[in-house]
Amino acid sequence: xxxxxxxxxxxxxxxxxxxxxxxxxxxxxxxxxxxxxxxxxxxxxxxxxxxxxxxxxxxxxxxxxxxxxxxxxxxxxxxxxxxxxxxxxxxxxxxxxxxxxxxxxxxxxxxxxxxxxxxxxxxxxxxxxxxxxxxxxxxxxxxxxxxxxxxxxxxxxxxxxxxxxxxxxxxxxxxxxxxxxxxxxxxxxxxxxxxxxxxxxxxxxxxxxxxxxxxxxxxxxxxxxxxxxxxxxxxxxxxxxxxxxxxxxxxxxxxxxxxxxxxxxxxxxxxxxxxxxxxxxxxxxxxxxxxxxxxxxxxxxxxxxxxxxxxxxxxxxxxxxxxxxxxxxxxxxxxxxxxxxxxxxxxxxxxxxxxxxxxxxxxxxxxxxxxxxxxxxxxxxxxxxxxxxxxxxxxxxxxxxxxxxxxxxx
Amino acid sequence: xxxxxxxxxxxxxxxxxxxxxxxxxxxxxxxxxxxxxxxxxxxxxxxxxxxxxxxxxxxxxxxxxxxxxx
Lengths: 410, 70
What we know:
The complex is a heterodimer.
Chain A: H1 4-10, H2 37-44, H3 59-72, E1 76-80, H4 83-94, E2 100-104, H5 109-118, E3 125-129, H6 134-140, E4 145-151, H7 163-173, E5 177-180, H8 185-188, E6 198-202, E7 216-220, H9 233-239, H10 243-256, H11 262-294, E8 301-303, H12 313-319, E9 327-331, H13 335-344, E10 349-350, E11 360-362, H14 374-380, E12 386-390, H15 396-408
Parallel strand pairs in A: 2-3, 2-4, 4-5, 5-6, 10-11
Antiparallel strand pairs in A: 1-7, 6-7, 8-9, 9-12, 11-12
Chain B: E1 2-5, E2 8-11, H1 19-25, E3 34-38, E4 41-43, E5 58-63
Parallel strand pairs in B: 1-5
Antiparallel strand pairs in B: 1-2, 3-4, 3-5
């Protein structure tokens, strides 16, 4: 059995390129031609394996999906146009009017907004609980629950739930567990081994090669009986374990139209080849930055699961094989001081993204959470004096020097 | 034996053919990415090796490409 990096580089052996190209070409074509009317009818009815139209499938996107399938251990992967598209597709496939999703009250701002603002008028209820207390998840589930959704590491609170404990609850109740694995990826966290049923990711982050292009992924781990999911029971009769893939590919994903562009799929496949190296470097740099900030007299508190004093250190070490991701937060005296530090930096970039190759800094309350009131922010654990740092893969001394220079200017 | 595969009549000369063999004969590259129905019933991937076909069977291979509906 070959290892993660080998699989990321070589992928699933597919047919040989006509010119013997080691890197498959980009099939940047919208439509694909067929020999006869009968042929194209067979393709459209799913009886012949061929591409027809790139909103539905495309050879370059398929190649990327196959690599992800191999790396995650899932039975199917669908690439979409962004991480938010992945979440939207999966919720629209499982839920509906009069149903609910149990999720964390500490979610990425746009995910929370999707649940509470965009989908609420369509009759979907988001039940917000603390994932740090699995009993809250159990109590919130009822007959109308269609899924439990959480992030491996919440952003920017950096909480790490005990995924196995939550998956035992969802399995007992016959509810699919949907996990956003963006900041850990299948390299740090193989969700299938911890009982998660569906994985969604923003492949824009680590996977794309460090923010080269926007994309997302849905992975079916193949460990849920879709007969138990009311919206998918009919699909399950025809397709068994492939019911989710069928419902997405042949209905929801096809109809929503949030497909990944072939060029982005090419960049993502390229990014996968070096992902393990970049993740190792980013995790190692983040730990060094966290230790540096912890001893700095201008810093009130540092939040990073890699620090032993973090309440999530033990569970993160167990789940992510002693790597703790590239994101950390820290607090200063005030919002103004946060702004002053951010403005003083020369190397670290002021930008809203995570797991880029570059180290990025952001004030969450005034950016990705700017649509929420101060009262909401407090409930979500977003302080006005909090700074988020996504640590990149630069030389560690240069990152630390930039921060030290910034603090000296305050 | 005579089989119907994806709506078309097929003459198979081998005496013993299971679903795995039929997928191989049809040159299906990723059998794990195909949903198979035998006489209208879904067949689990784990049973392909032990599911032997008999004359008159109706086999449907459903690929998740192309883009039609169910």
